[in-house]
Design brief:
alpha+beta; 2 domains; two-stranded antiparallel ribbon; 4 helices
Length: 202
Amino acid sequence: MARPRSYATPTTEEIRSIDLANLRRWRMLTLGRIAQTARIPAITWCTDGIDRLGVIAQRDGVLFVRRDGEGYLEKLFIPFVFTPTKFGGQRAWFRYPGCRQSCRILYGVNSLRCRKCWGLKYQSQYEAPAFRLLERARKVRRRLGQARSSGEALPPKPPYMRWCKYRRLANLVRRLESAGIAALSGYVNGMQRKIGYRGPRR
């Protein structure tokens, strides 16, 4: 569901983003290495053209390098901030220099900022509550190995998953779908009353 045209606030899906988790997954945070097409897959976005962004990993942050329209190099350093994890490790986050907030995803083309500094909203914030609930249920079904829509029987427990976790996710799917269908029914009934629909003639 696209955002209404009357809403001026863009969504996170409409702007280029850099996810710290993706950089780690693509092994682009190895110290001393620059993201190049010949060595590591360069991050490529399609905006008005092809924009290649170089990533230079450092111990205390990431240095982003790109060329402007005239071919000059532009650099932006985003430091890390670390928070402790449950089992004694540390998790790294971007710390945007502007607001000093910790975030995992940066947004922008010519400049990188966090979601709050851009004033962005998530696409789900423009959706009706019923669709948000059903979408959450669909994502949980995908974790259980099923991509079908609501109303279908849940798949058997995946072999890698514990029974307690499977039961918890299965109960979550049932609660979300039950609440989503109820909300959707109320939404449809409200629309029917609004347009004066009285049901099929007998």
